[in-house]
Design goal:
Length: 166
Amino acid sequence: MHARTTTAAALAVLALTLTACSSSDDSEPAAAPSNSASAPASPAAADAGNYETAQDIADALKAAGLTVSQPQEQKDASYITEVGGTPYSLTITDGDGPAAGEAGINLFPNPEALKGWIPLSKQFGGIAVTNDAWAVSLPTRGEAARADSERLAPKVAKALDGTVQQ
């Protein structure tokens, strides 16, 4: 009984996390590209897709020509925080228009924690790009957001040397 309760609670928390990362908030347009030309902390790490911080990931996306807002750490309890990781929210676009919703960068403490998250994300219809111990979760609430994320996911994967999960 306890295992079912724990599993149900974990799924509920994940659903809330995915909902938060997938919400469509048209009131906040995507941030303009930053004027600072910052690069990932370690070019060798970036080449392998091994980013240490959410800012490293955001900087790599900017370097690939995408428009990315400043990552904001999310303090609410979620699957990611329960396994010792850190979630961030941001917007990602490849044009001048507003983002279709809020995306997320999830930094996991180890590859095993990420591997546990991927099937849960897929179960809830998530679209993400992953590699090693991080995931970029793209918005999926609504047809427009899902279509935009399906189009954007390969660009994010190429920029980060990641794998599209959906």
